[in-house]
Design goal:
single chain; alpha/beta; 5 helices; globular
Length: 108
């Protein structure tokens, strides 16, 4: 499973996931800082990646009728530490498949 880290995911999380051999594409590294949330959701789909975010707007977009996405992993920035986020994403990628994540949201 590939992860698309939207622009609000800290570099420490991205680095931690990569140390655990999880494929991560970071929006900031691609030069997508400041792009609208809909852009990030679409880009994750193009890259066949599950989006990792702290942004509740993705939850609202995903709940809209007809919304389709490759999956969302939501980690509330105030409730989930860097380590908890890394371990949670690692668990999700080891247990769930891309098919399991399609149009699905996992909360950390």
């Amino acid at each position: 499973m590939k992860i698309y880290a939207d622009e609000n995911i800290e570099s420490g999380i991205i680095e931690g996931l990569r140390r655990r051999k999880i494929a991560v594409v970071a929006a900031v590294e691609l030069g997508y800082r400041g792009k609208p949330d809909a852009f990030h959701l679409a880009k994750a789909g193009e890259l066949e990646a599950v989006i990792l975010t702290h942004d509740v707007d993705f939850l609202m977009m995903a709940s809209m009728p007809g919304s389709k996405h490759r999956g969302i992993i939501f980690a509330h920035a105030k409730n989930v530490s860097t380590g908890e986020c890394i371990r949670g994403v690692e668990l999700i990628t080891s247990v769930l498949t891309d098919r399991d994540m399609a149009n699905h949201i996992e909360f950390l």
